[in-house]
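Lab intake sheet, docking and co-folding queue.

SAMPLE TYPE: protein with bound small molecule
LIGAND NAME: copper (II) ion
LIGAND FORMAT: SMILES
REQUESTED OUTPUT: full 3D complex as structure tokens
PRIORITY: normal
SUBMITTED BY: R.K., bench team

The fields below were copied directly from the construct record.
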Amino acid sequence: MQQHTDRDPPARFPTDPSGLPEAGRPQLLELADGDTLKLRVGPVAKRLGDTTVRMLGYNGSVPGPTLKVAQGSEIIVQVTNHGDLDTTVHWHGLRLENKYDGVPHETQAPIPVGGEFTYRIQFPDAGLYWYHPHIREDYTQELGLYGNIVVVPSEPGYWPPADREFVLTVDDLLLEEGRIAPFSPVETSYAAMGRYGNVFLVGGEPDPVLEVGAGEVVRWWLTNTANTRVFNLGVPGARMKLVGGDSGRMEQEELVESVLLAPSERAVVDVLVERPGELALEHHTPERVYRLAAVTVGEHGHGSAAAGAFEALRHAPELGVERQRLDRWLAAAPDKVLALVAQMDDPAAMPAGAGAGDLCLSDASRGDQRPARPLPQMRHEAAGRRPTICQGHRAHSPTRRRSSRSPGDL
Ligand SMILES: [Cu+2]
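RESULT FIELD (auto-filled):
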């Protein structure tokens, strides 16, 4: 197989799905402490409505397998890269050893095409997390490299009771004339993380049907894997209770009409439908309503114990304690006030060689926006601009820096 590094990108990304294995449905993999998972990045042929496109999958599916693990456990993940360009795997939201967090050039060397890397992944916290690449997410994540992780709490009763559950990704993909719109092989297409799409995918499917029973409490584990789009999700006609988010359960559960999910965010919602019928998972914007999935509500399931407990809005005592612990810091006078300043170039006036922008940390406690003191290796002077002291240093070319990191990504 031809080898590429991110210094040597392919002339153009392949788009032909001919001869590729058809993308499968994501497996649910229940992994025990000490288990080893083999995760293979590779191209797949994905049917979307009446067209078939070339996408990328973990273990041959879009999304990749859903990992179900116990809180406090640890697994080994052996990643082999048979994709189109270098990759890493970032474990979004998990607290783990920095060297396994998949940040290219910073914590690990990129995994070249044909190469492999072994991760040791820990799950200290219950809740919903996910994994995706940290190189050219605008391309590789858009094409299907993402998967969910459900960490089962050690504490019984951590979550309220539910009758069934769906673990789903919500995403969008840009199709033009039946093909995925092209990407630049050398730099991020559109904004740093990617672009809006015109086809919605729920769990990798453009028009899925979810079956539930009337009177059941159905837990929806939702991850926004879109590169740019914020989703405003609801199931009109059903009752919805927000029970969890990015860091496990909510401190205070609440009944909601919809949940707003920015890219990378997660929500755990319990949905109760009282009568049989046809509903839909919808995305609402101020101007439009998009139908993402059909929800068929069958006759069965009336009167479950979970439905009886649906009205209760629970409080998480450990988060209340955590909040109290932080109160004294919130009440304390600051030792120093810092201002985070985003300095953006005017693209129309961008001088040759200048980057797209810098995220700078300035000392506002001095009463101005100038940095207090240059830090070693943190000084950056772009042509034609005043010097700025930046939170990161430009170790790589502007193209690689913009394409391989995710500003705002944890
Ligand atoms: Cu992430």
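REVIEWER NOTE: The chain has three domains: 28-152, 164-327, 338-404.
SIGN-OFF: pending second check by T.M.
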